[in-house]
Input
Amino acid sequence: MSVMVTDTSRVDRALFVTGAWVLALIWVLPLAWAIWSAIHPPAFVTRFDPLAPLTVENFVGAWNAAPFGRYLLNTVLLVSLVLGAQLLLCIHAAFAFARLEFPGKSILFALVLLQLMVTPDILLVRNYATVASLGLLDTILAIGLPYFASAFAIFLLRQTFKTIPKELDDAARVEGVTLLGLIWRVYVPLAKPTILAFALVSVSHHWNNFVWPLIVTSSVETRPLTVGLSIFATTDSGIEWSTITAATLITSAPLLVGFLLFQRQFVQSFMRAGIK
Amino acid sequence: MHRDWGHAALLLLPAMVLLFAFTHMPAIQTVIDSFWSTPRGRRPSVFVGDANYRRMLADPIFLKAMSNNAVYAALTIPASIALALAMAIFVQGRIAGRAFLRMSYFTPTVLPLIAVANIWVFFFLPGFGLFEQIREALGLSPQNWIGQPATALYAVTVVSVWSQAGFFMIFYLAALQNIPDSLREAAALEGTSRWTFFRRVTWPLLMPTTLFLSVNATINAFRTVDHIFVMTQGGPNNASMLLLYYIYEIGFRFWDTAYAATLTVVMVAILAIVGLGQFFLMDRRIHYK
Output
């Protein structure tokens, strides 16, 4: 009897491990192929010869064929601008919702939460008109502006601020610390893990964002990497596949390398940001 | 107390102004726009009542986009969630190569969807891509996966599932960690099979996470269309047209802003229903506790 149980559980276990590995291989295959084709000459795109010569030509070719350096700079500027503005605006707003009493508070907060569902990138046409009327079309500011007031950041920070003991407020106020001083020197340092979590989510989201930047940008000086890549990959000029995958990797590499180096923080941050 | 009011107003003002300017005002304005015509050249916008809505209900592309979006949602939501749960269970316990497995599952999440789509386009290329080489080896005829109406929507679906399942996995991992070991030990003592334990204990305890992920997956099914731009552009013959991509086409290819506003109203309505659904479901869950 006991022999039979161990037998079935051993088969069970083997199936379990096989399933895990098959799934992982399917999940890793596309990226592995992309790396393979990017570091080998075009002739080896689908010939998996372990002795195939290595090359950086594809990266050089992609880098020279389109202004990826400029796109990269634009993306870095964009994600820094968005994150900076989000933190500045949302830390203050979150503090007001967490610690101050004022009329209409719950209605205002409900209005903030509405943005979790109806995000600015659904309202493309109207927001385009707004940005155009402000004379901001084709600027990096225009790509970021609709996302500055982030309901997600306000919600997340409010939850964190609420867990900070109120005695700290009173102590600080007795010491004569101003309200802004209290926020920046007591609340912000204590909310650091949440801020870091939000920062990672925000940076990866805006690094990868595509549709809105596509609509509001029209020149090399403003286009982020995602838009630049889509233009590069869809022009029918007979570009080799290996060049396109090299460009694809250039676009994703900074975030990917960051993720592989700080895997634990990434996963924990996404988890922290997702659990309400 | 009243000093608080002034402070609150100052702290909230910048964020609230931007929030209203880019979320609430445009949402309201979109509803208004949907009852007016698109201004063209010197012809100003005029009130047209429900004409845009009547046009929409008679528009075969809109109806196609809605049915596509329904199919797309019906496939991506359960597939992403089931795979995410499998991944979480795989890497939760002790298993050889656990760190590698977890990394493999999660990595697609950090790639831009536009880049992911580029890579997958190659996989689907007729006669050339990797799928095709496998088919060829099996003696099957070449297929143009993203270029033929019968398969384009499914090709797009596969890419969406691949890119989001790993993200959902981490929520299940977090939830699994919260299931007390004592339950597992008790079940082992009772001789409960692994499957029974999953069905009777794990699955019910994961219900709140499943619900949360279902809402997220539903929103994504309507809100994420980046890969459509690279892979199919809604084609061929609208076979992979999704609602948000159609809004983009009407609004920014044909510059028909009034009709685009009408379509956007449908989008907002769908997301509002999902939001309300979540609110009430979550509410019931709290009463359960």
